[in-house]
Design goal:
Layout lengths: L5 H4 L2 E4 L4 E4 L4 H13 L5 H4 L13 E3 L2 H9 L1 E7 L1 E7 L2 E8 L6 H13 L6 E7 L5 E6 L5 H11 L3 E7 L1 E4 L2 E4 L2 H42 L1 H10 L3 H12 L3 H8 L8 H25 L2 H19 L6 E3 L10
Parallel strand pairs: 3-12
Antiparallel strand pairs: 1-2, 3-4, 4-9, 5-6, 6-8, 7-8, 10-11
Helix pairs in contact: 2-7, 2-12, 7-10, 7-11, 7-12, 8-9, 9-10
């Protein structure tokens, strides 16, 4: 039972018979903020959630051009986004260089290099004199330009003809109670929160059951400690365990679980200190039981726990977004 919407944060891709899924990774902090916003306001719409979940966040960084495709995917479950490499133009000793330190998600740098070499050889790309890839600390691609080349033109042609700019088709296809469905962002988050409610309720019921069992046994211990001399005498004068258990059942109204626990009791548990500890443990467990019953009777408390646990994860593991979303107009060179 993942403590955060893993399907969005880590993403996934797969092909089945006649259907495919392609879920991009997202930023942990943003997704948790989106879940919290939904808990606070279940009527929130997709645009409201997009104030928190800005868009996919790829571990390789890059730049997503515009948010039209993101919005379409979040509203309908399907959309396409364009991811561009992060590049800058530098000038040294009268020569221009294009430095790329982030490439689109899933792009193979060796295949990229081979593609550029082919395009230069076939004169589709002009103005490039050298191409070097350094993978020591992440990705660093240095493209050396010819002296007469216009660096912006070369860069735009690289975007146009190679995977320095590529599309990512988003398909939020997932199993909902065993049925494949294409879901929007709001549906994914709402179904996750519903599932978390179930997880918290089942966990609380289990904890309540365990606490009640402990209280039951401690109440048996308390009866034994309050009537210590008589209990010891019953055990001493009984022929075997079964007789001792039966006599304890009859005299003190204990059940077989309590009687068994008393017979298994170590002598050290009969000291004054241990008796005091039994009283204290009983008091604390009864408070725990009251609190667990309160949770099971109030959905607001269940939602508060979900929020608290998710925000704790965000505090421990949340980080800054790596993929930039560029809202400016996309500039392409006209085909002539």
């Amino acid at each position: 039972p993942s403590r955060f919407p893993n399907i969005l944060v880590n993403g996934t891709m797969g092909i089945a018979v006649g259907m495919a899924t392609n879920i991009p990774p997202h930023n942990l902090s943003e997704v948790i903020d989106g879940c919290v916003a939904y808990i606070d306001n279940p009527e929130i719409d997709t645009l409201g959630l997009m104030q928190y979940v800005k868009g996919p966040d790829f571990p390789t960084g890059g730049i997503i051009l515009g948010n039209k495709g993101i919005r379409q995917a979040y509203e309908t479950g399907r959309g396409s986004i364009t991811i561009r490499s992060k590049a800058k133009i530098e000038e040294k000793n009268g020569r221009n260089y294009i430095i790329v330190d982030e490439v689109p998600y899933g792009v193979n740098t060796q295949e990229l290099k081979n593609k550029v070499a082919d395009l230069v050889h076939n004169k589709v790309l002009d103005g490039i004199s050298d191409y070097h890839t350094d993978l020591k600390d992440g990705v660093k691609i240095t493209i050396t330009l010819k002296k007469d080349a216009n660096p912006q033109v070369v860069l735009n042609n690289l975007y146009k003809h190679t995977a320095f700019q590529s599309n990512f088709g988003i398909i939020f296809l997932m199993l909902d109670n065993g049925t494949p469905k294409t879901l929007g962002l709001r549906d994914i988050i709402s179904k996750y929160i519903d599932y978390q409610k179930e997880v918290i309720i089942r966990r609380t019921r289990f904890e309540l059951n365990q606490a009640e069992k402990k209280v039951h046994i401690l109440e048996g211990f308390k009866i034994a400690i309050d009537n210590l001399d008589d209990v010891i005498n019953i055990i001493k004068t009984s022929k075997n365990d079964d007789e001792a258990k039966q006599r304890l059942l009859e005299k003190y109204g204990l059940d077989s679980v309590q009687s068994e626990a008393i017979l298994d009791l170590k002598l050290r548990k009969l000291t004054a200190l241990e008796r005091e500890k039994t009283e204290k443990d009983l008091e604390e467990l009864r408070k725990v039981i009251d609190h667990l019953r309160e949770i099971l009777g109030d959905e607001k408390l269940v939602l508060a726990i979900i929020k608290e646990e998710m925000l704790e994860i965000k505090g421990k593991y949340g980080d800054e977004r790596r993929t930039q979303i560029d809202m400016t107009a996309i500039d392409y060179i006209e085909d002539e």
